[in-house]
Amino acid sequence: MFRLLEETGFSRVRSAVVPRFRFRKESTQNAAEAYGVKAVMMTALKPAPTDGSLAGAS
Amino acid sequence: MTDAASTQASLEVMLKDEIVRMYQEVADNPRSEFHFFHGREAAELFGYAPEWLDRAPAGAVASFAGVGNPHERSNLQPGETVLDLGSGAGLDAIIAAWRVGITGRVVGVDLNPAMCLKAQAHVAATGAKMECHEGRMEDIPLPDASVDVVISNGVVNLSFRKRRVVEEMFRVLRPGGRISITDIVSAKQLSQSIVNDPKLWAS
């Protein structure tokens, strides 16, 4: 996702793991961990044509 | 259409049906147990403010099926136009509507028209407004450069065509607009048995 956002033209792409995310069922959680599955928060900006004074995602 | 494209197209149809079925089930029977946390328990886990959850309609809170809290970094401002991609029963749209205020606008898009009606009713019950469109995130039914912020919670991962979804988010955003989304990612390529199973993929 991070790469897709950058390739599409988004700037200031940021991501952070959602620390408390987990599956309720242990078997699902175990399978998810085996695949490196995690929840992430992502923010990004669509660049404005003129300047770098954009407000928004931090 | 090639065999591979044909297979993907039929998988997408099955996946759409499974997504509609699963999240309708969460909305209709929120007391059921699912393999993911949902409802108030999940929202509290992800840091939703208790006063938001107390103030929102119980049905919107009980049907919450997100994977994080896109409001944590959305920095929504009064007057902004927000798109909630995959708006479900409407909890995130409600919070967005509160934050952008009466001069702002909240637009939802959801695969399931019944969920759109439910979300609009939940938002209206708080005295706020939301318009919701039935549609797919791969073809967002909104004009170019028409929103300031896209929020989404546990939805993009459900698409087989994530690049297309990201391109659509980019298209509907105004220059200078932003996204704040929470979603599931995988560090490893999922096995073909998972990819080919709409029930697992929809999970």
How would you characterize the overall build of this protein?
Chain A has one domain. Helices cover 28% and strands 28% of the residues of chain A. Chain A is built from two helices and two strands. The longest helix of chain A has 9 residues. Chain A is elongated, with a radius of gyration of 16 Å. The radius of gyration of chain B is 16 Å and the shape is globular. Chain B is α/β, with parallel strands linked by helices. Chain B has a five-stranded parallel sheet with strand order 3-2-1-4-5. The chains are: A alpha+beta (58), B alpha/beta (203). At the A-B interface, helix 1 and strand 2 of A face helix 7 and strand 5 of B.
From the 3D coordinates, which CATH architecture of chain B would you assign?
A: 3-Layer(aba) Sandwich
What is the number of helical segments of chain A per DSSP (H or I, 4+ residues)? 2
Mean pLDDT of chain A: 84
Low-pLDDT residue spans of chain B: none
Cα end-to-end separation of chain B: 28 Å
How do the strands line up in the largest sheet of chain A?
1-2
At a glance:
The complex is a heterodimer of chains A (58) and B (203). Chain A has 58 residues and is an alpha+beta fold.
SSE inventory with pairings:
The complex is a heterodimer of chains A (58) and B (203).
Chain A: H1 2-8, E1 11-17, H2 26-34, E2 37-45
Chain B: H1 3-28, H2 39-45, H3 50-55, H4 58-62, E1 81-85, H5 91-100, E2 105-110, H6 113-125, E3 131-134, E4 147-153, H7 162-172, E5 173-186, H8 192-195, H9 198-202
Parallel strand pairs in B: 1-2, 1-4, 2-3, 4-5
Keywords:
heterodimer, A: 58 residues, alpha+beta, two-stranded antiparallel ribbon, 28% helix, B: 203 residues, 18% strand
